[in-house]
Structures are given as C-alpha cells and as structure tokens.
Amino acid sequence: MSETAVSTTTPKLIYILFMANVIIPFLGLIGVVMAYVNKADAPEWQQTHYQFQIRTFWIGLLYLFVGGLLSVIIIGWFIILFTVVWIIIRSVKGMKSLDAQQAHPNPTGWMFS
Questions:
Q1: Which residue of 56, 57, 83, 91 pairs with 15 in a disulfide if CB–CB is 3.0 to 4.6 A?
Q2: For the segment 40-86, what is each residue's pLDDT rounded down to a tens digit?
Q3: Angle, nearest 10°, between helix axes 75-99 and 9-20?
Q4: Above 90 in pLDDT, residue 32?
Q5: Rounded to 5 degrees, what angle do the CA atoms 32, 105, 79 make?
Q6: Which H helix or E strand runs over 21?
Q7: Contact in structure between 64 and 80 (CB atoms under 8 Å)
Q8: What span, in angstroms and rounded, lies between the C-alpha atoms of 39 and 67?
Q9: Beta carbons within 10 angstroms of residue 95's beta carbon
Q10: Per-residue pLDDT at 3 exceeds 60
C-alpha cells in the first residue's frame, strides 16, 4: 500500500462510519472520537476534513434531536429523513475531496459543501 493511501485511510474510514451509522447506530460516535483523536496530528489539508466530520456529527445530532422531538407530529419524520440524506451527501462529497487529496472547501458550512 502506498504512503498516500495510508494517509487518507482514517478520514475515509470516518466518512464510511458516518454513512454506516444510518444502519448501525453508534458508529458515528466512534467516527467522531476518531476525528477528534487524529485531527491534531494530521496535515493541514486533512485537518479540514476532520473539522468537517466533527461538525457533521454534532449538527446531525442536533437535527436528529429536533426531529425526534417533533416526531410526535409528522414533520419530525421528515426532519429525520432529511438528516439521513444530509449525512450521506456530506460524507460522499467529503470523500470526493479526500480522494483528490484536497482540503475540504467549506469545513464550517452547515449544508453540503
């Protein structure tokens, strides 16, 4: 395995854990812990991915909490569905930037980019 492939393994695994969290709960928690642990030692361009992953976890948790509260009425289920799609899109777009070995273009954004 080349050195480049090894250097992107952890952030890529975190994106995969976030997507798998849709099916297997608590994998996202493992992913965010990994992001916090690895962020400081990563090259600057990868730190943007870790920051993006950390924000994805916390913002997603906020959306799920609000959706859970509102699930008593129909709108909550739509918020939960939106959150699942939102996490998948953010993870796929993040992996695309990671595969190109580019810094994430907007690690502090709330939406997809």
A1: 91
A2: 999 999 999 999 999 999 999 999 999 999 999 999 999 999 999 99
A3: 160
A4: yes
A5: 55
A6: none
A7: yes
A8: 30
A9: 19
A10: no
How far is the C-alpha of 54 from the C-alpha of 42, rounded, in Å? 14
Q: What angle do CA 65, 66, 67 make, to 5 degrees?
A: 90
List phi, psi (to 5°) of 102: -115, 150
Q: What is the pLDDT of residue 105?
A: 85
The pTM is what? 0.89
Looking up tokens 């699942």 gives: 84
Residues 6 or more apart in contact with residue 28 via CB below 8 angstroms: 17, 18, 21, 57, 60, 87
Cα(6)–Cα(8) distance, integer angstroms:
6
What the block records as the tokens of 111 is: 């939406």
Q: What is the DSSP string of 22-62?
A: TTSTTHHHHHHHHHHHHHTTS-HHHHHHHHHHHHHHHHHHH
